[in-house]
Here is the input.
Amino acid sequence: MTNLFSKQSPWSCAAAAGTFALLFAACGDEVTEVTEVVGMQVVEEGESLPKCSADNEGAMVYSVDSAAAYTCIGKKWTSMKGKDGKDGADGKDGKDGADGKDGKNGKNGTNGKDGKNGTNGTDGTSGKSCTAVAIDNGYKMICGEDTVGVVLNGEDGQDGAKGDTGVAGTSCSAEEDSDGVKITCTDGKSFTLSNGADGKSFVDGWMVDPRDKQLYRVVTIGEQTWMAENLNYKTENSWCGGGSGENEGDCTKYGRLYTWAAAVGKSEDECGYGKTCGLSGKVRGVCPEGWHLPDTTEWNKLFTAVGGNDTAGKKLKSQTGWISSRDGTDAYGFSAFPAGNRNDSGGFGSEGYYAYFWSATENGSYYAYGMRLYRSNEDAYLDYSSKYYAFSVRCIKD
Here is the structure.
């Protein structure tokens, strides 16, 4: 047999066995002589290959000169020897990469915000500086730009009906000091109107209604603190006390008269004549903040504090203003002044004869209770009247 391979080739061992049958003497690093070729024609040169046609499709021929086996496939001899791979084509030069865009400058990190300063606490309201300005019959009290009250010189008391000497009026004077305005009266009493009064409390016997800056004297009797003057705050359905017929009186002297609905701070449609209001607890009504309209229990407590109903009238009446020298002793400084009333027909009367004060206690749809003082009596008592009537108001501190 002809020696086909001098060295191991791609057709050695298992690789060749999978295509055609070559019988080798051995299979290892070197190939021994071929002892037999089965099913294959051998030619000396590749050019001597027989014709490849449909008739011999699949025939195999071995060419000695090229050491290659050929198979007739598709009318063409196809070498069974692996061809050298073509040199790979040189890769094309890569295109120049597009220049990258300039990167944006990184944003500066947000600076931490400065912590907000804590809100300053609200400064307390500065007290107003008060001065006393002399007028014809006393002193006018001015705090800031507001006139807050007038202190009148006391007038001589009228002679009694039997020729008794009347009680001399008290003369007062006012002057500024470090605490406000000091008021000194010839009867030995003195008061201080403090700067910056807030109207919610009283200082040394005085309070200021913050709504209209009016000045009121106040008095503590037992465990209660009362206004010692009739309220003079203007509202709907209120009129100046005193007066006669259709003419109302003098608010400066008597304060104002209020229907019961106005006294409890309601409209006539809500709590007037024929309406049941049903109020309870402390009823502020027409009074300033921090004060309220007294109910019947509080009026009775006042009577007890001054010695009882039988003598309360004498002790609570003012020392002047009552007809026929029926003035009271004003033993506790309550100074009940006879402002009279306005009746359900709209007429004013009883100035100098009676003092009527509303309570917050209702008596059905048509009536409400009040406190009454008569000129000729020394007692004080509670009674009910038509809600149409207009009476005085005294506020009591909460």
Residues 1-36, 156-168, 195-203 have pLDDT under 50 and may be disordered. Residues 218-397 form one domain. The longest strand covers residues 354-363. The radius of gyration is 62 Å.
